[in-house]
Amino acid sequence: MGDHLAGAGLLLAVLLTCRPRGFLQGHEVSLSLAQVSEVRWAACSMLRWPAGQAPRMGTFIGVYLPCLQNILGVILFLRLTWIVGVAGVLESFLIVAMCCTCTMLTAISMSAIATNGVVPAGGSYYMISRSLGPEFGGAVGLCFYLGTTFAGAMYILGTIEIFLTYISPGATIFQAEAVGGEAAAMLHNMRVYGTCTLVLMALVVFVGVKYVNKLALVFLACVVLSILAIYAGVIKSAFDPPDIPVCLLGNRTLSRRSFDVCIKARVVQNGSATSALWGLFCNGSLPSATCDEYFTQNNVTEIQGIPGAASGVFLENLWSAYAQAGAFVEKEGVPSVPVAEESRAGALPYVLTDIAASFTLLVGIYFPSVTGIMAGSNRSGDLRDAQKSIPTGTILAIVTTSFIYLSCIVLFGACIEGVVLRDKFGEALQGNLVIGMLAWPSPWVIVIGSFFSTCGAGLQSLTGAPRLLQAIARDGIIPFLQVFGHGKANGEPTWALLLTVLICETGILIASLDSVAPILSMFFLMCYLFVNLACAVQTLLRTPNWRPRFKYYHWTLSFLGMSLCLALMFICSWYYALSAMLIASCIYKYIEYRGAEKEWGDGIRGLSLNAARYALLRVEHGPPHTKNWRPQVLVMLNLDTEQAVKHPRLLSFTSQLKAGKGLTIVGSVLEGTYLDKHLEAEQAEENIRSLMSAEKTKGFCQLVVSFSLRDGMSHLIQSAGLGGLKHNTVLMAWPASWKQEDNPFSWKNFVDTVRDTTAAHQALLVAKNIDAFPQNQERFSGGHIDVWWIVHDGGMLMLLPFLLCQHKVWRKCRMRIFTVAQVDDNSIQMKKDLQMFLYHLRISAEVEVVEMVENDISAFTYERTLMMEQRSQMLKQMQLSKNEQEREAQLIHDRNTASHTTAAARTQAPPTPDKVQMTWTREKLIAEKHRNKDASLSGFKDLFSMKPEWGNLDQSNVRRMHTAVKLNGVVLSKSQDAQLVLLNMPGPPKNRQGDENYMEFLEVLTEGLNRVLLVRGGGREVITIYS
């Protein structure tokens, strides 16, 4: 919001500067000269940086060095030599190349996003959330936060490992109580020292974060000096290799922590004396003592641990040497006499592998060493030209560090003996850091430099992670995180720091650097994956706002980077990858359902619009097949004078009928002109949307302002929806006060709306006593849904109760179907046929046939109509098809039978299905016409129109009322206690003079029933027996 205000203020100031007088003439705005000056000052001040905070950092200081410091770190000093020794030069080269390629492709995508406008605080989280939306942004932002937090734990563990292993081994608190317990004791020491270090660092960050930033260059200098010392040591080893002997027993490497001289016995004046090594392998210091069999059978030899770049050891280190946990570190090519299986190997001074190594494990351990490419984008607010510095500095830093890592792999393989490379903790070198022994002028340059660099990296993680969490919390997309948006008066994230420390402590309690590294690899890879996805989506959508200044990107590179990130996740650890995806998915769904809605113009919304457009174009061609038909409902709501909804239960009933599936359009009409009523229309639309949200009705709101309610409802019926996504059913409430003259929604509007739906071939549902319908929170514990199936209406009466019973409100209700038969009908056969029909429809319902005298039903709306005959013929067809054993696919064609009827019939007849099994067909129509040769021409037209003359004869009206009363009595006797009654709704009369009689007929027909749903089909089949 602040960015928009700043832009508006600047534009206004510029315009006012150009034309201070006359610019706003003719408009209802006036500004004094003082106000103009104030606006100019405000606009300029918005663009001016605060005093003392001018962005003066360039590419080198602002981006290149921070990225360098974040990328080079603990893995380089503590694990890279071991990775080269275990995986070999070739596979190590492949691991580093894959990880560096991944970060390079991600950096290209990030550069495109970062140069597509200003990136404020939040870095990668801001880029992803504004590109992919709040759901993805929140999920990936939290993943990045967790990755940064676990990175802090990894750096602290690296710091403690350097301190306890290489600087002060005697400072350990826990000692090994039994043979082989050194590893467990070390883990306990790591937990204690790590926790203390974490608390100390958290206090430093809480009290003086400015000192952390000032010390950043000092820590970086330590890293640079350490790397220079490594290269200097490599160059020196080429012509003057250091004298670093490694003791071998047979082909097994020995740990020199407990002895100095690599001999079994030494010569003295009176003979020979055993050495310290003898005492380790034998049960005494005398030459006659019993010794280990392997020690007895094999000789002790010494080799140079760092023979130098010219020694030719490179060829020996090309290939991998993976081993199981507890295996001996052995040198190939040295003679060794094998012995029987040894039980005391763990108690003897051998160098053993501590974990089972594999290619995938090494990828997970190494990948954190290439993270940190976001350091430049996180500082975009402090850069002189962020859109130039971020791509240049980040890519140069990745190129530099990639060269350092790749060259170090080759140089380590060329200079250091393989058994020393595989010695993770330098036990063969008397407990010295392997990479330190290669460095020049002293190993302490590497030890001290790596110690301070890991300390600095840990402090930087504890500084950056809380601020990232604070940025996410202040966005308000995750409600339960909002408390972490608060902090001290100066904005420092106190609560976020506390949570970061607690999460970081879980990583420290793991206590193993090799176990923590793959965890944070997952979170960083997840973040990088979505950075690539964001760039690919924006590029493919070609949104007008996608105009990055960085031009060297392509969607294929982003897609390749995304695929590589996903592959690396599963290469590192498939179960960690699935866990990270599950965490991200849970956060995504939580934000989607509970989070605050944000409109950031993100790419996912654009992708949704493109997908919607594609889907709409696909469904544009023709009506859906009967198997795909479902009620796409237009709900007609009435509003009161306060623009509130009169019958909110209509939306409850809609959600129960739809269960979130298909299309729902909630429409309403305001009477007047749009210019006069646009504010009221906005208020009414807001009220409807709020009610839709409360009733959990998923759909669209469409409000029309029209001169009359009648025209507005007609417009909605005609034009609601878009393309193939249009409604096929109209749901409205029965006008309970239709007899009152002052009722704005008069009975004339209702009858005309019925006519409109008939003309549009849309189904109509009229809910009577809608306020008595259940809310979504209610649950019926039993009861019936009764269907009075007087005519076949395409199956609407069968389908609607089935859909309702899918909802929790109606789930325990049972369905009953009543059909009316005349005295001369075969009621028993009719019941069997209907039961068979329901069986084929896969609908469970009780069937009951109600017999009525012909005089009682002859005046009903459907007297001698095609629809009445169609129902009887359809039931007969059940028996016919069973006898003939014929089953043909049901093809529904919604078209009128223009080839064999008059123009009048063509405009009013319903669409007739062609070649439809068990429904009315053209052949049956001709047969019925020949069977009723005595029917008059007017009667034949009546048969097609389904609209008898309600207003012609008073005697006819009396007969119809008699029919309504009789039928109502039968319905009441059977369904008075039903939870819902569904009835066929007769069509309105052709003569408008009979409209009031029509309303009276419907009133009498449904009198005394609690909940009634009048159903009028749309003239097509909506249910089928075929799969």
From TrEMBL:
Residues 63-234, 356-634 form the Amino acid permease/ SLC12A domain. GO terms for biological process: cell volume homeostasis; chemical synaptic transmission; chloride ion homeostasis; potassium ion homeostasis; potassium ion import across plasma membrane. It is a multi-pass membrane protein. The keyword Nuclease does not apply. InterPro entries: AA-permease/SLC12A_dom, KCL_cotranspt, SLC12_C, SLC12A_fam. Pfam families: AA_permease (PF00324), SLC12 (PF03522). Belongs to the SLC12A transporter family. K/Cl co-transporter subfamily. This is Solute carrier family 12 member 7. The lineage of its organism: Eukaryota, Metazoa, Chordata, Craniata, Vertebrata.
